């Protein structure tokens, strides 16, 4: 049963990440926590997300907004150590509860057409939140997704810029996790076993991306955010 669940998690999450640019950590991390210890689930997520970003970036680099990408990277630098301190010293259940309520509130605002103006300062702030969430719970996606949705970013630019940012944030977060939390053979063996599923998910996700229009993409985004917030809320309660 655990093997079937692991297969479904990795395959669906890989396809989602490939087609949208943000789905792997949002979908995989909560369910991987059912099968692994928190540090193991987070590091498996980081490794596989890094593989997906590396595999896709050469195909989509022309769509990356490098100005926004640079600000995300700079913003994430102070957020990364904050996140690992949260993981080590703060009650993760409390953190999940707070994050779930914020995501739920902002998603409802987006559904009702709330929009924000993109700025350099907000780019840096979003990067900081994303960095902190990556090293604390392995989920950098919600701040980026909420921000890009609120600024009505085109799906091609959203996916490309997010995947390029993940290439940096996942690599640095994995190094920080290994140094401060440690690692084990279960993490690396499970990640290696998941690689064929990731490859299949890449193929499926590329097919889905071509079939999804901007309107459907936005609806899909809201559903993922609602799922994430409700799951974190239930899990923390």
From TrEMBL:
Keywords: Cell membrane, Membrane, Transmembrane, Transmembrane helix, Transport. Its main location: membrane. It is a multi-pass membrane protein. The keyword Phosphoprotein does not apply. GO terms for cellular component: plasma membrane. It comes from the Bacteria. The keyword Cell membrane applies. The chain crosses the membrane at residues 72-92, 98-116, 163-181, 187-209, 216-234. InterPro entries: TM_pro_TauE-like, TSUP. It is found in: Cell membrane. Belongs to the 4-toluene sulfonate uptake permease (TSUP) (TC 2.A.102) family. This is Probable membrane transporter protein.
